[in-house]
Each structure stands twice: as C-alpha cells, then as structure tokens.
Amino acid sequence: MTETAVHTAFSQGELGQVLIDRLDEAARCSAPGPGVTRLFCSQAHHQVLPLISRWMEQAGLTPQLDAAGNLVGRCPKAQAGEKTFILGSHQDSVIEGGKYDGMLGVALPLLALEALKREGMTLPFGIEVVAFGDEEGVRFPTTLVGSKALAGSVTPDQFEAQDSEGTSLQDALIAFGCSPDDIPDIARDPANTLGFLEVHIEQGPVLEQRDHAVGIVTAITGIERHKVTLSGKAGHAGTTPMDMRHDALVGAAEMVLAIDSVLQRTDELVGVVGRLEVHPNAVNVIPAQVTFTVELRSPESATRQDGREAVTAALETVAKRRGLTINVENTYSAEAVACADWMMTALEQACIQVGQPAERLFSGAGHDGLAMQALTDIGMLFVRCKDGLSHHPDEAITAEDGESATRVVMAFLQQMGEP
C-alpha cells in the first residue's frame, strides 16, 4: 500500500551521511569528558530525549516517555492496538564510551522508517521504535530494566538497587518524571507482538575480517555478574608487621589474577573484573575492605556454571590463606537466547536484495534481546565497526556501512508487509 510522498526520497549515499550526522548530534548529549557518557536517568539522558523525539516524529511516530524510562515511538496502527513489530536499542552508554553502541539501533530504524515514508510506503502492521533507558547497567547494579518492562519480567528488587551516591532506581525514575508503580501496565501482549529487531555495531572483529558491512546474529551470549566483598583489618601501614596483616587489597589483587587464570584456561568463557573499590583508600592505612565485580560470559550455561564454581573456589582459597572474610553476591544473570529462524532468513533475503553478503555470526555481548525474548521472537543485525572496537571513544562505523544497514532494514520491513 502506498501514499503520496511528502518529502523527496533519500538519494543513494545520502542515508548513510544523515545517519552519521544524527549520531554525531546525539553524542553531544553526554557528561563532560572523552567519548560519550550517558547514564540512565541522568541529565545527558534527559538531554537526548527531544532529539530522539524529533527523529520519531519525522518517521511518522508519536513519542512518549514510559514508566520505565524508555522513549517509545508508535505509528497510528500501533496506537490503535493493531499487531505491532518492535525495533530499537538502548540510549545509555558506558562511561567514556562511543557514539554508536546502542544509539545506532535507535537512529537507524527511525531513519529507515522515514525513508520508507518518503517513498510512499505504508506498512500493514503497527510499528514501535524504542530507545530503551537502561541496558548497560552502569549507574545501577541491575540492567535491561527497559526491555524487561516491555517483556513483563521486571522484579521488585531491581527498584531497590542504588547508585554510587545512594540514590535508588525507584527514586531516580520518579525524579526523571516516570511512575515506577505503573511499570506492570506497560508490558506488551505477546499475542499482539510480531517480533523484535535490534541493529547494533558488532563490537568485535569478525565482519571486518570478512570485509562485510553487516552480519546476521544467530544468538546472544549468557551473562552473569557478581559483587565480591572482601574484608580484612585496617592498621597502621608503618607499624604493623607484614606477616600480621590482613590486607584486603593484596588479597583482592591475588584474586583478580586467579580469576584471569580460570578464564584463560576455559574455552568459550570470557570475563572481567571491571570495578574495584578500596576502603578506607588512604595512603598510610592497610586496606580493610575491597569490593569488586566479576562478570562471566558464555553461550553455554554449563560452561558458565563450571567457570563460576572454579572462580568461587579460587577466591575462597585466597581468602582462607590470608585470613580474610569473603561474600559473593549475584547481581545479574541472563541465559543465552537464540534468534528466531524466520527473522534470520528474512534478514538474509533483505541483505541479498540490497546486494550485501548475509553471513551469520554469534554475539558475545549482551543486548536487550536477552529480555525481549521472553515476550516475542527476536532478531539482530550487526554493523561492522572499525577494529572491532567498542565501549571506547574511538568506536566508529562508516557512512557506507550505515547506508547498507539502513537499506537492509527497509527491505526487511517491506518483505514483512508483503502478502
């Protein structure tokens, strides 16, 4: 079905440059410092909402901030309750991250929809594009709050999570203008949801090695995160004999090496100790307590379990030998999920239609699809990124690859609309 185009259609090559320009503009919505720092319910998050809202309106969608901090754009069919296909990704970033992780999957589908609109195309089903509020889990020790809200799987304990300044997620949402009590009401009806597609930079080197602009994701890795609290005893750094110390930092340093050793010798398991806090953190005081995080990732739950058990045993051995008390708390866990066969096939056909190779690959990073899979079928399209670099200010894609990915999404949606 078509309608008269109001605007001139995008010319070949123009889409990619428009996409890059929009992502550059979004990157200015950031806390000061290198790269992009845009945390959940922060000032930078608030600053980016009008920009995304404008993109949504240009695509023919009506934007609305929901109870979980997601900005949702809906077409008239979706607003009327017709069966709806969801696209989107997250607006939040890591600290000093890049321009494209997350935000690419917001800007690109909106541009694809705007391009289809300019070409006079009307899809026979509803469309939602979601800029999820929280995916990275940087500000609060929880993650995927926005996508879990749509899937109806948010748990009450997530709202008790506190940031480094003691602000709870519940209070942060209220201060942001959201109503956490209404989150159960925004869960989507699985019977009315056609699927979910996310476009994302690969965050790895495979597409660059293959010299392909895009790739079709087969599955998303499982992830678990743990908070380790190691307690020793403070003391004067100049008067306490070395053999009488219970130094939490020395113990933590040994534990970090032990964790790395487990990861190095276990196939298909990766992980990181990404955050470490020392108390009292004084120049002449033996550290009394250290808190650090451990993240483990694997596509196989059994591999992750074996790795977790090996890590835990190593930590307990170090703690016992050094006279330290240890507490390990699981703060996040998500099983690996597979992308739907029909979406992978449809994306392959769309790639062929626009003249792009359509090889498949696995995602070693977590994404909102981990939560959305509880609601509906999921699919992912990866876009090549320079040197496979992500979570870094130098993260980069080309306008040409952005153009190719946008046209793949256009072709995918058009195919879905064919009888």
From TrEMBL:
<keyword id="KW-0479">Metal-binding</keyword>
<feature type="domain" description="Peptidase M20 dimerisation">
    <location>
        <begin position="222"/>
        <end position="321"/>
    </location>
</feature>
<keyword id="KW-0464">Manganese</keyword>
<dbReference type="InterPro" id="IPR002933">
    <property type="entry name" value="Peptidase_M20"/>
</dbReference>
<dbReference type="Pfam" id="PF01546">
    <property type="entry name" value="Peptidase_M20"/>
</dbReference>
<dbReference type="InterPro" id="IPR010158">
    <property type="entry name" value="Amidase_Cbmase"/>
</dbReference>
<comment type="similarity">
    <text>Belongs to the peptidase M20 family.</text>
</comment>
<dbReference type="Pfam" id="PF07687">
    <property type="entry name" value="M20_dimer"/>
</dbReference>
<comment type="subunit">
    <text>Homodimer.</text>
</comment>
<dbReference type="InterPro" id="IPR011650">
    <property type="entry name" value="Peptidase_M20_dimer"/>
</dbReference>
<dbReference type="InterPro" id="IPR036264">
    <property type="entry name" value="Bact_exopeptidase_dim_dom"/>
</dbReference>
<protein>
    <submittedName>
        <fullName>Allantoate amidohydrolase</fullName>
    </submittedName>
</protein>
<keyword id="KW-0378">Hydrolase</keyword>
